[in-house]
Design goal:
Shape: globular
Structural class: alpha/beta
Strand content: 15-25%
Number of helices: 22
Radius of gyration: 35 Å
Helix content: 25-40%
Number of strands: 29
Largest sheet: 9 strands, mixed
Low-confidence stretches: 18-60, 81-93, 98-107, 343-391, 571-584
Oligomer: single chain
Mean pLDDT: 75
Distance between the termini: 64 Å
């Protein structure tokens, strides 16, 4: 009997120990004696004894914990993995722009699609994310936008320059697709010629052959589009109101205005002899207007940009259907009922032109409202009678006769654009000259904020702000320059012929884009490429040269590759295709040749959008605080003090670095009010997000090829709609199908 009792007690103790062992993730080891046995760990682990407590029935189950592993002398702890040393400078690209898997645009989110009726995209040239956050107290209008939306750091494209970045903002593609490689490049076929996108008139035509833009698809959907001082839009037919940016263009600015924009500028700035309204005469507009917009690029340029944008919104008609008009007027009534202070806002009224003869303002004398028509002596129209002189336009708006400036704008028949893009350049000009943190640059930032506020007030006057999604961004950041590097001295030190910049006959043609240099080797000079790369990657130049990249690494930089060179001999001269064709009978040879032909055709089609006639043979990138220069005796020299001909600020470096980071502010319908978001977005994500909020879709194919966008919709920044409740019948049908 005693033996049976002892065996029962031992079984109970062993069961309790097994239960505790399972709870703690292991089996308790040790001997059990009496009612409270001690469970000890293995001596090889070196841990102290832990008493085993039997849980009562009322106690909660023990919490599962991780076992601590104690390493003894016999089993030493594993050594930490050694970090692989950094590869040789320039041997690999510093970042990768492509996703791990290509994502086609057919994967569209369903939330907030078409929530906005209008879109405003503003670019502040050169404003980095760090300066934006540090100096946001100077920008009250942007802070108001931030309260309604979000602020994010943004990675631009490579090179971090004005023209490729703005084209990526408008298309959602990297330069490998849209083809604008920088502020300047060189095309080798059919003949060598320089391409300056701020003067070249067929840049937009070439872009359209490669990929569509945001204003292309909005215009195709029937929307009015406007672009004011936006780069690389010369000759864009899908822009209704187009004022392209022509840096150092002069008279080209006025010559390549779209017809509606030209009428707007004449109505807004043409000087009238009688009333004195306007700024310039007809000759001064053709010459002086281009000089203000293209040559100086300072506060006057930004003032004209803001005035044109605000005038389009305030004096334009709203193009909408009858249903959209009913919905909008009903929304206006609801807002007036909820906010009694906003009762002064009125719906849009129709404008009818009574008489129009020229542009300007007429004057009349009489007992009523009179206006002269035509040039010379005219008859006044109105309740009274009289005579007047001048060149004017008489417009009747809802039964009221308008004269002067208001009549001139009403006669142009303006329309509110569904998509409005505006570019402000004063900060970039002063940041180049005096530095991004200089007093002059920060003052320009304050004035730009006032102009952005004026555009937003224009939307408020028309009661359109609640239906407008606003994005404020930048094309690149800025870095202060302390040193300069002379590439031509490196060529000379390593036995290469010393070329001059921009000389087509030189063996190595060098085109400089601030901190990036595009190197082109003439025909027959391909064998020098390896010598040139080895020379640029030497350790004595690490102070200023960040890397030298060959075409095999362009895919990671987002650049297209150049056409294949014929003057570089392959490493293996034997042709594998010929060796393979020798094996087998004649039938297998034909099949193998046909299979290889189809494989080559597939590869050619797949690589077609990645090739570009202007892609360089070598890309050289400097450090953030260095810039390429010429005319110095040393390879690396200190940068001179800031003056008018030696700019202290520069850009063009790798976009994923801190100095080159831009920012993105979003607010409006469909945008989440998150104020500050730490995750970084990309410049190519802006266009797909705006298209999604406007309710327009990118085509699946473009120029007979399947379209693949580099950008994606910022799903984390948009409002997620409530999921639809599915009926029981529909769910049953889906279960049966499965």
């Amino acid at each position: 009997m005693r033996t049976v009792i002892i065996v029962g007690i031992l079984c109970t103790a062993m069961g309790a120990g097994l239960t505790l062992g399972l709870h703690y993730g292991g089996v308790l080891r040790g001997a059990a004696g009496g009612t409270a046995s001690a469970a000890t760990t293995s001596p090889s682990h070196g841990s102290s004894a832990r008493p085993a407590v039997q849980p009562k029935s009322s106690d909660p189950p023990p919490v599962r914990r991780r076992r601590r592993v104690h390493h003894s002398a016999k089993t030493p702890p594993p050594k930490p993995k050694k970090r692989t040393p950094r590869a040789e400078l320039g041997s690999r690209a510093p970042y990768r722009v492509l996703p791990s898997r290509p994502v086609w645009y057919r994967r569209r989110p369903r939330h907030s699609f078409g929530k906005a009726r209008f879109a405003l995209l503003i670019s502040i040239d050169g404003l980095s994310y760090d300066v934006m956050r540090r100096e946001r107290a100077r920008m009250p209008n942007l802070r108001k936008l931030l309260r309604r939306g979000f602020l994010r750091p943004m990675h631009t494209v490579f090179p971090a320059m004005t023209w490729p970045s703005h084209v990526s903002l408008a298309t959602g593609q990297y330069p490998r697709h849209h083809g604008v490689l920088g502020n300047r490049w060189l095309e080798q076929k059919p003949r060598w010629k320089y391409v300056h996108p701020y003067r070249k008139l067929d840049v937009d035509k070439r872009r359209r052959k490669r990929t569509p833009s945001l204003f292309d698809i909005v215009n195709k959907a029937g929307g009015i589009t406007a672009s004011i001082n936006w780069p690389a839009t010369q000759g864009a037919k899908t822009l209704t109101y187009n004022l392209p940016e022509f840096m150092h263009g002069g008279e080209l600015t006025y010559r390549f205005l779209s017809s509606p924009m030209q009428k707007l500028i004449e109505a807004l700035y043409l000087k009238d002899d009688v009333t004195g309204e306007g700024r310039w005469t007809e000759d001064e507009i053709k010459k002086g207007f281009g000089k203000v917009m293209a040559e100086d690029e300072d506060h006057d340029t930004d003032t004209i940009t803001a005035e044109l944008a605000a005038t389009l919104i305030v004096h334009g008609k709203i193009v909408e259907s009858a249903r959209q008009r009913r919905v909008r007027l009903e929304a206006v009534k609801q807002r007036k009922a909820a906010h009694a202070r906003g009762a002064s806002k009125k719906p849009q009224v129709k404008v009818r032109v009574v008489k129009a003869a020229g542009l300007g303002s007429g004057s009349g004398t009489g007992t009523g409202a009179g206006a002269g028509t035509g040039t010379g002596t005219g008859t006044a129209t109105g309740p009274g009678s009289g005579s007047g002189t001048g060149s004017g336009v008489t417009v009747k708006v809802a039964g009221t006769v308008l004269t002067g400036f208001a009549a001139r704008l009403a006669a142009v028949d303006l329309k509110v654009p569904k998509l409005l893009m505006a570019h402000f350049v004063a900060y970039d000009t002063f940041a180049h000259r005096w530095g991004p943190n200089s007093k002059e640059a920060l003052e320009a930032l304050e004035k730009i904020d006032e102009k952005i506020g004026a555009i937003i007030v224009a939307y408020k006057k028309r009661d359109l702000l609640d239906d407008t999604v606003v994005f404020v961004t930048a094309d690149h950041g800025f870095a202060e320059i302390t040193h300069g590097v002379n590439l031509y001295k490196i060529y000379e030190e390593h036995g290469l012929d010393e070329p001059s910049e921009g000389n087509k006959k030189a063996p190595i043609v060098t085109l400089i884009n601030s901190q990036v240099a595009y190197l082109y080797l003439r025909k027959g000079e391909g064998e020098r490429l390896e010598t040139l790369v080895n020379a640029l990657r030497k350790p004595e130049y690490k102070r200023c040269i960040f890397g030298a990249y060959v075409p095999e690494e362009y895919q990671k930089l987002g650049l297209p590759i150049p056409p294949p060179r014929t003057d570089i001999k392959p490493d293996k001269p034997e042709d594998n295709a010929k060796d393979a064709s020798k094996k087998g009978d004649k039938g297998s040879k034909k099949k193998a040749a046909h299979k290889k032909k189809r494989k080559r055709a597939r590869k050619r089609r797949a690589a077609a959008p990645l090739r570009h006639l202007g892609a360089p043979d070598l890309v050289v990138v400097t450090m953030p605080d260095c810039r390429l220069r010429g005319g110095t005796k040393k390879v690396i020299s200190k940068w001179p003090k800031p003056r008018r001909d030696a700019h202290i600020g520069s850009h063009g470096f790798i976009p994923h670095t801190r100095p080159m980071r831009a920012f993105l502010i979003g607010a409006g319908p469909g945008i989440r009010q998150r104020r500050r978001v730490g995750s970084t977005c990309r410049a190519v994500d802006v266009a797909p997000t705006i298209a999604h909020l406007l309710g327009v879709r990118y085509p699946r194919r473009w120029r007979r090829k399947r379209l693949r966008l580099d950008g994606r919709v910022l799903s984390s920044a948009i409002v997620h709609d409530k999921p639809r409740r599915r009926s029981r019948r529909r769910s049953r049908r889906r279960r049966r199908r499965r």
